Amino acid sequence: MPVSDAASPRIPVQPIGLRMRLAHRVARYAPARRHAMRNDRPLVSFSFDDIPVSAAATGARMLEEAGVRGTFFVATSLFGRSTDHWRVAEADSVAALARRGHEIGLHTHAHVPVVALDAAAFHSDMGECRRILSDLVPGRLLQNFAYPYGYASLVHRAILGLQARSSRTTHPGVNAGRIDLHYLCSILLDRSMRNPADIDALIERTIRQNGWLIFTTHDVDNPPSPYGCTPAILEHALDAVRRRGVRIATIGEALDLIGAPKAPHA
């Protein structure tokens, strides 16, 4: 999501925006190796991008009080920085999340759209992200990725197939049947999801399809940014999932449950 100039390189917003939308569409429809999900029950995951302070504090606490854990996707250049919408948590907050059982995911170092990075720059950026996170959470698997801004590309999807176990987009939908592990769909929990009935309908759809629903958000605050949600929205989603007996799992746990291949050597 939008960050201050201090937090990321200056890029030409309009050209990148057009390119990333086109690249995302090509990646969506291009042939890809697909995985047949083998879960015996429907699954829901809660993920947080960029890790605003409120996600590391309020969001994580709410999941823990519900007895579950989430996946937090970290862009390592953003630690402690202020954006147009929130302040990003410090590095020690990421380490604390890992100690409490949450999964830490890769979200690049620079937090720019992947189409702004050629293959060499992307390899370098991901290497820096892994290096920093490996120092923060030693011994933890860093195997799952979320595209900055939610937009994929065919080239980067192929690279990630050699570096990561999965890659999550913000393309809306429930993952079900045969899925592309490097184009995982998710649902944004943001201000547009104010109606609890919309959340309930998504969970019911997940149950009918024996699918995997990934909720994605950023800050958890009152009022939230355009890319975040209120504590009440998150609480409703958690309660609605638990009332229906759907299993809540981190992205890494869900991949195990759907029988996904283990992560390649990074």
CATH architecture: Alpha-Beta Barrel
Whole-angstrom Rg = 17 Å
The structural domain count equals 1
Query: CATH topology, what is it called?
Result: TIM Barrel
Q: Ranges with pLDDT <50 over ≥5 residues?
A: 1-14
Keywords: Signal
Pfam families: Polysacc_deac_1
Function: Is involved in generating a small heat-stable compound (Nod), an acylated oligomer of N-acetylglucosamine, that stimulates mitosis in various plant protoplasts.
Domain NodB homology: 42-249
3D architecture notes:
With about 270 residues, this protein is α/β, with parallel strands linked by helices. It has a single domain (about 10-255), classed as Glycoside hydrolase/deacetylase (TIM Barrel). It is about 35% helix and about 15% strand. It contains eight helices and ten strands. Strands 2, 3, 4, 8, 9 and 10 form a six-stranded parallel sheet that branches. The radius of gyration is 17 Å and the shape is globular. Mean pLDDT is about 90; it is low at about 1-15.
